[in-house]
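Can't paste images in this forum, so I'm doing it all in text. The chain is below; anyone willing to post the predicted structure tokens underneath?
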Amino acid sequence: MLGRSTWPPEVLPYIRYVCTEKQEHLLCISLNAANEVLAIHPITVGLVDRVHIHPREVFAGAMADRATAIIIAHNHTCRDLTPSANDRAVTREIKRAGEIFGIQLLDHLVFNQNEHYSFLEHGELRSPAAGEQSIRDEPNQFG
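Text version of the structure:
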């Protein structure tokens, strides 16, 4: 185990190593019921401005870890950390899949070397303490 995370952005020191890469990298952080980091799984390496993912790939490592929750994270190769419509659609899809698998999506982090964007912090992914079960409804805009 790498350590306990009481707030999803606390995992950033473990994953910022991908910020030096020229392509986007999607990572899945598996956590146990005590929010201890079990493992960090690289899911896919994309292009300079996007990655293609499938929930099956995201949850494969988390299931093997017997994780109760995950945080997904990907680096942006530019300074703009604003999530794209695709980032939001993927987050909704991963959240729904996690509900089926019984593995909660705690956050989706978009980050670079110095900053981050947290879906949870921006109210786009509700914490379970807030009593919310889904992120803001927006049209699925895969393009």
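The CA atoms of residues 110 and 142 lie 18 Å apart. The beta strands are 3-4, 25-31, 36-45, 69-75, 104-111, 116-118.
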